[in-house]
Amino acid sequence: MKRIAVFTSGGDSPGMNACIRAVVRTAIYHGIEVYGIRKGYNGMISGDFYKMESSSVSNTIQKGGTILKSARSKEFMTREGRERAFEQLKKYEIDGLVAIGGNGTFTGASMFSEEFGIPIVGAPGTIDNDLYGTDYTIGYDTAVNTALDAIDKIRDTADSHERVFFVEVMGRDSGYIAMPCAIGGGAEIVMIPETITSIEQVIDTLRNGWERSKTSFIIVIAEGDEEGNATQIAAQVKEALPQMDARVTILGHVQRGGAPTAADRLLASQIGIATVEGLINGKSDVMAGIVNSRLVYTPFKDTINKKKIINQRFVRMVEILSI
Amino acid sequence: MKRIAVFTSGGDSPGMNACIRAVVRTAIYHGIEVYGIRKGYNGMISGDFYKMESSSVSNTIQKGGTILKSARSKEFMTREGRERAFEQLKKYEIDGLVAIGGNGTFTGASMFSEEFGIPIVGAPGTIDNDLYGTDYTIGYDTAVNTALDAIDKIRDTADSHERVFFVEVMGRDSGYIAMPCAIGGGAEIVMIPETITSIEQVIDTLRNGWERSKTSFIIVIAEGDEEGNATQIAAQVKEALPQMDARVTILGHVQRGGAPTAADRLLASQIGIATVEGLINGKSDVMAGIVNSRLVYTPFKDTINKKKIINQRFVRMVEILSI
Amino acid sequence: MKRIAVFTSGGDSPGMNACIRAVVRTAIYHGIEVYGIRKGYNGMISGDFYKMESSSVSNTIQKGGTILKSARSKEFMTREGRERAFEQLKKYEIDGLVAIGGNGTFTGASMFSEEFGIPIVGAPGTIDNDLYGTDYTIGYDTAVNTALDAIDKIRDTADSHERVFFVEVMGRDSGYIAMPCAIGGGAEIVMIPETITSIEQVIDTLRNGWERSKTSFIIVIAEGDEEGNATQIAAQVKEALPQMDARVTILGHVQRGGAPTAADRLLASQIGIATVEGLINGKSDVMAGIVNSRLVYTPFKDTINKKKIINQRFVRMVEILSI
Amino acid sequence: MKRIAVFTSGGDSPGMNACIRAVVRTAIYHGIEVYGIRKGYNGMISGDFYKMESSSVSNTIQKGGTILKSARSKEFMTREGRERAFEQLKKYEIDGLVAIGGNGTFTGASMFSEEFGIPIVGAPGTIDNDLYGTDYTIGYDTAVNTALDAIDKIRDTADSHERVFFVEVMGRDSGYIAMPCAIGGGAEIVMIPETITSIEQVIDTLRNGWERSKTSFIIVIAEGDEEGNATQIAAQVKEALPQMDARVTILGHVQRGGAPTAADRLLASQIGIATVEGLINGKSDVMAGIVNSRLVYTPFKDTINKKKIINQRFVRMVEILSI
């Protein structure tokens, strides 16, 4: 392994820069040259490469976003696109790739590696924490803390007024972000895709609370909940309980930004080192992750197909703590 | 003046507790007893009073919300309601009132003071900064910083993707919150009630940017904008420019919470002192404010009827700085 | 088990309130009465007990410090003190205790439990993360993030000036706080009690950097480092390298405060539940902790005597990442 | 005016980048070319110039530090140094300068402008707020909020323990930072250079508090206080009151960093515009500032020689609010 390249793909997440930094410095530490590819697979196809030095990643560990930019690429989904990408890698004499992203990124990487024999090791960069093969994904801890900080602020004002607050958080098809936000934010109700909470149940809980003169509620809703988004759910609740003043907060992309937390910087740094040392040791078609504090390499096909299940302990916790 | 009472009314704002604290300690400093009234005019009517000591406000200066709770009162809008409130004040031998709130609060206070001759001095507690008679209202600086922090996080991710972000901020019928958020957040477009920005103008700006390959935009929208809310505006833009990926953030009540900034604590403390010393000096039917670093008392009728106009310098600044 | 009591002891840490809240609500959930004891063992001796309800812990999960106050008790170190404490427990008919604190707290608890047969389960509440039997202690994640935030701010200014910054962080006799701060803060040097870094090595590194015209450095020092505190180390460096402008930051108790992070709230909530359910299931003389995402009860004598060793992976990471 | 240059000098402050951004974009808006000079007067002497475009300042408004770097220059204090600097300006055909910094910066600028006839307009960039001619300096509001956030965290823990906390904040020879920190942080004592507070007074206050069983105190000390620094004062207090547990926090350069607050971004943007438009309108040897919400140009000799006096209202406020 003489020269590797690194890129970020899909939705960005806080800590991606800390991961890129670790990749670059670990490569240099081991005497390997390293290139950055801008804008994910699109930049790989168009040849948007540049040589990175240790100083290229100075003062980036604390920055949100990704200095390599990111994108979703339709062209890479075609055989022609991947051929063009491989031509670029040959031109730049790249022996191995580090792919930082989520499931979509690894699906592309897996095909690419199989078709063209280029070694690829992945790093789990997504706020959604929905990847099998790692306890936490890079950016997840930051996103949860950002959402929780917003809920804390809402709670300040909730106490003064008789209101129901609906807070929609991210997480694609999972409640990984919603669950700790609900527990840590002291929410009364959490609605996540993994469990069924009907609008009727929500209305019942609110009505019962109202009758016991509890008049302020926080409801955390995962964006992928089966009952719809926060605006839709709030509208149905307002119709059933017109006496309650319902307000909606949609945090949106606020959750993707911000300086990464300490945990995300450490995780990103460890995984960044592991991707490069994995490539050196002949690994490919795998994602580096941390499971039970240990470094683990999981085949892409498992990270893509196996489902990580939210700890049932958390579901029970909401029941106990909202007493 | 032997005994006064203090209450908060209307929407809460960060710094209300710092103001209550200053009222309580200034009263005690001058040998005056002080009562807290819970839940605004509702509590005044129902007699929800309690004696406050210096220690009642210990460790509250940094807290969001209001320890006295707040509410909007329909009953106080009636002559009967106000009579019942006055009965309570007589019962507790209250000689003067400090009312912390916004325009609605002062409208009620003005009527009440006129009808029953009870001296009332107001403190401008609202995040909206829409009160004539003070350069800044208590909570405004905090709300702006909270919204700006959210926009900073969006900007982190905006740089990596080709996207249009619509961020809806509070401010009722004014652009006071939206304007500094747009300038401080480096937004490309700001939509406020005070100026007309049509959907067509927005679409033109985005299309022109897109054609110059500028593909990431932040648009700050004041909740009271004449073109509708962020969700509605985003929908129209998506229809006209389907190639652009538009995302919506609605901060909502997040902006009302959080620890008050240094500026809000100082302002709240100064104004809290001024309300009590105003009562001592025979003032009534006025709001205490700070204009050009000087303490000013403005008649309630002026704070209610006169309009504070957003500095035109700021409108020009957006034009220059978004070059 | 009909009635338990909970107290905090030793240095406070962010998340203690979240743990108290979980203890209170879990007890009530299981039909057990719960008392709070104020000021640790001192309050146990003096009988500073009060009955807690679900509402006693409303709106506390996000608060730093401890609503039960904390203290170090000399009297409890004596047999007489402990006898008086036990009398109080008998008087209040307490069947079991939850002790939230660190090593000193558990040493007292272990003696007390042995002597008087009262069941006690501990919760690891300390920012130092130096307790065997749990991967993380309650408050550790918050303290690290607070220190890291300070280092980020120093880095902003470090880049503009030719300066050496010495930042002293907490951690008693361990480098658990210093290490992630150094890695996450991109520090050039870390000085922790577990490894020997001589002043000469520091001076050499700085001199070599200076000669390669690297002129800005951040050095993170654990308060318990064998070479002295930050002020002492900085003085020695200044003497050897008078051309360098050295500045000292001592964060001190800033690291103990602040709203707990999401991770600390979750950890504290899980452990709080586990302490009560441990008591119910007949456990005593043990601390509840989370190891590899699983709940573990460790005998007090092990948490006190066994040493948790900092992951050697981290020491190597500093070497690679500071390239 | 065809081409101007901008530089930052002296200690950096949050908001300097927002000011540079406004200078660059205002110049371009008016059809003027703009150069950046790196490392203050040192870079002016050595010719470290580069042409800036609108995109040079993209995504910088929220960043702490200064993208132009800063330095203190001994060489510029000599006639020879200034001659060399002027040669560079001639070479680059610079018609006017914007100097962002404090008193030292303006002293140099004033000499330079007089000797060589080059128009210079200054912007007040310092966290110390000690410049005559502006209500607030760029960076002051951010520094105060940073220090206050630290004091809030200390207060969380102060409530649980019997302790005296000494917190040293910046501010050179003035109490501008210490005063709002003390008021906003609810400190019991503030020690600033402008007023005499002897160690004996501090000890008396603590002893009296102790005797009334008030056992937790926060003392804010300005770094330039006549009684010494926090470590020295704490040592004297410990000697006199050995029963009290005294802890020291020295925030140091933490106060110089961080994302600027909304107020600092607005101030920096307004002043940045004003410096360029001042140069266009023939101003020189003046600093742009905001006094009572209005733009004011003050001769350098006044900003250097006249003293801005801390509002006496604040001194009285501490007395009232610490009751």
Automatic annotation (TrEMBL), chains A, B, C, D:
<dbReference type="GO" id="GO:0005524">
    <property type="term" value="F:ATP binding"/>
</dbReference>
<feature type="binding site" description="in other chain">
    <location>
        <begin position="126"/>
        <end position="128"/>
    </location>
    <ligand>
        <name>substrate</name>
    </ligand>
</feature>
<keyword id="KW-0324">Glycolysis</keyword>
<dbReference type="GO" id="GO:0006002">
    <property type="term" value="P:fructose 6-phosphate metabolic process"/>
</dbReference>
<dbReference type="InterPro" id="IPR012828">
    <property type="entry name" value="PFKA_ATP_prok"/>
</dbReference>
<dbReference type="GO" id="GO:0005945">
    <property type="term" value="C:6-phosphofructokinase complex"/>
</dbReference>
<dbReference type="InterPro" id="IPR012003">
    <property type="entry name" value="ATP_PFK_prok-type"/>
</dbReference>
<keyword id="KW-0460">Magnesium</keyword>
<feature type="binding site">
    <location>
        <begin position="102"/>
        <end position="105"/>
    </location>
    <ligand>
        <name>ATP</name>
    </ligand>
</feature>
<feature type="binding site" description="in other chain">
    <location>
        <begin position="170"/>
        <end position="172"/>
    </location>
    <ligand>
        <name>substrate</name>
    </ligand>
</feature>
<keyword id="KW-0479">Metal-binding</keyword>
<keyword id="KW-0963">Cytoplasm</keyword>
<feature type="domain" description="Phosphofructokinase">
    <location>
        <begin position="3"/>
        <end position="278"/>
    </location>
</feature>
<keyword id="KW-0418">Kinase</keyword>
<feature type="binding site">
    <location>
        <begin position="72"/>
        <end position="73"/>
    </location>
    <ligand>
        <name>ATP</name>
    </ligand>
</feature>
<feature type="binding site">
    <location>
        <position position="163"/>
    </location>
    <ligand>
        <name>substrate</name>
    </ligand>
</feature>
<feature type="binding site">
    <location>
        <position position="103"/>
    </location>
    <ligand>
        <name>Mg(2+)</name>
    </ligand>
</feature>
<comment type="function">
    <text>Catalyzes the phosphorylation of D-fructose 6-phosphate to fructose 1,6-bisphosphate by ATP, the first committing step of glycolysis.</text>
</comment>
<keyword id="KW-0067">ATP-binding</keyword>
<dbReference type="InterPro" id="IPR035966">
    <property type="entry name" value="PKF_sf"/>
</dbReference>
<dbReference type="InterPro" id="IPR000023">
    <property type="entry name" value="Phosphofructokinase_dom"/>
</dbReference>
<dbReference type="GO" id="GO:0042802">
    <property type="term" value="F:identical protein binding"/>
</dbReference>
<feature type="binding site" description="in other chain">
    <location>
        <position position="212"/>
    </location>
    <ligand>
        <name>ADP</name>
    </ligand>
</feature>
<comment type="similarity">
    <text>Belongs to the phosphofructokinase type A (PFKA) family. ATP-dependent PFK group I subfamily. Prokaryotic clade 'B1' sub-subfamily.</text>
</comment>
<dbReference type="GO" id="GO:0046872">
    <property type="term" value="F:metal ion binding"/>
</dbReference>
<keyword id="KW-0021">Allosteric enzyme</keyword>
<comment type="subunit">
    <text>Homotetramer.</text>
</comment>
<feature type="binding site">
    <location>
        <begin position="21"/>
        <end position="25"/>
    </location>
    <ligand>
        <name>ADP</name>
    </ligand>
</feature>
<feature type="binding site" description="in other chain">
    <location>
        <begin position="253"/>
        <end position="256"/>
    </location>
    <ligand>
        <name>substrate</name>
    </ligand>
</feature>
<keyword id="KW-0808">Transferase</keyword>
<dbReference type="Pfam" id="PF00365">
    <property type="entry name" value="PFK"/>
</dbReference>
<dbReference type="GO" id="GO:0003872">
    <property type="term" value="F:6-phosphofructokinase activity"/>
</dbReference>
<protein>
    <recommendedName>
        <fullName>ATP-dependent 6-phosphofructokinase</fullName>
        <ecNumber>2.7.1.11</ecNumber>
    </recommendedName>
</protein>
<comment type="pathway">
    <text>Carbohydrate degradation; glycolysis; D-glyceraldehyde 3-phosphate and glycerone phosphate from D-glucose: step 3/4.</text>
</comment>
<keyword id="KW-0547">Nucleotide-binding</keyword>
<dbReference type="GO" id="GO:0016208">
    <property type="term" value="F:AMP binding"/>
</dbReference>
<feature type="binding site">
    <location>
        <position position="247"/>
    </location>
    <ligand>
        <name>substrate</name>
    </ligand>
</feature>
<feature type="binding site" description="in other chain">
    <location>
        <position position="223"/>
    </location>
    <ligand>
        <name>substrate</name>
    </ligand>
</feature>
<dbReference type="GO" id="GO:0070095">
    <property type="term" value="F:fructose-6-phosphate binding"/>
</dbReference>
<dbReference type="GO" id="GO:0048029">
    <property type="term" value="F:monosaccharide binding"/>
</dbReference>
<dbReference type="GO" id="GO:0061621">
    <property type="term" value="P:canonical glycolysis"/>
</dbReference>
<dbReference type="GO" id="GO:0030388">
    <property type="term" value="P:fructose 1,6-bisphosphate metabolic process"/>
</dbReference>
